[in-house]
Target: Oidioi.mRNA.OKI2018_I69.chr2.g4407.t1.cds
Amino acid sequence: MPIYATAPNRTEFMLNLQQLMIKYNGTLPGSDIPNSVVGDGAFWTLVIGMLAMGLATDPHQMFKYIKKPVGPLVGMLCQFVIMPCLAMIFLSAAKIGTYEALVIMLYGCAPGGGISNIIIYYMGGDLDLSITMTMLSCVLALGLTPAWLQVVPVMVDSEDAIKIPFAEIGTTLAAVIVPALIGSFINWLGKRYKFSKAVRISNILLAAGTTLTLIAILIIGIYKYYLTAIITVSQLVYAALLPYVGFAVAATMSFSVVWLIRKCGKNFKIEALQHLTIGVETAVQNGRMVNAITLVLYSGII
Model:
């Protein structure tokens, strides 16, 4: 797997691909694995995973966070203002092409996704807050993510027009919101009709199965695409820094907002686990949505 200084153009990529085909006698490792194993597999695993997360979510607690949305508002500010601005700073500091910049900006302005919820679940964080923030960010992403993407041609001085694949955005976000709402509703039914134990067991089994399946899909995806993946030094730096910077900024802002509210005489408290949850939700983006949009936008180029 070569690491490029800058993203190759179509000619350079096809030349490298031809050399690989010669080296492996016309058949690249993993080429016999259908694309649907990774693409559709990740999609449906996300759906089941969000159902599992919903089974562990208390709808009453979610409504409390919506009524007093300090935590979610801090998260949304970080998700759709600070993170995109960090991506813009990176784009202005590095020499990056339009479509490489597009992916970087996508990760900067994408909403939260299932992976962040699963991380919070196993870390013992506030899953109710995590799911609430994920749903709110998914709704806002329908407008804010396409808006931020229009900045990319300006940042890289390109005349390429970016056509936003709204269908892919809507489908991916629905795969996050709908299963989580269904799972939360089942959680409420379990408490009301006294089958909460069955709900908890289902939650544990589905969460474990989802995690193992995601790991398997990740390994399969690496094996299938590692030879032809376009990876640059800029991408590696950005991927290494973004989650940690995003987490640090969001957690620090959360602490600061609570401190200011108390200084104003308001009796408001957020637990340490909730600060942690806000940080993780900001740092871990909806990679499934980013991948879906990227595949659509690249389909006419490579």
Notes: Residues 35-298 form a domain with the Na+/H+ antiporter like fold fold (CATH 1.20.1530.20).
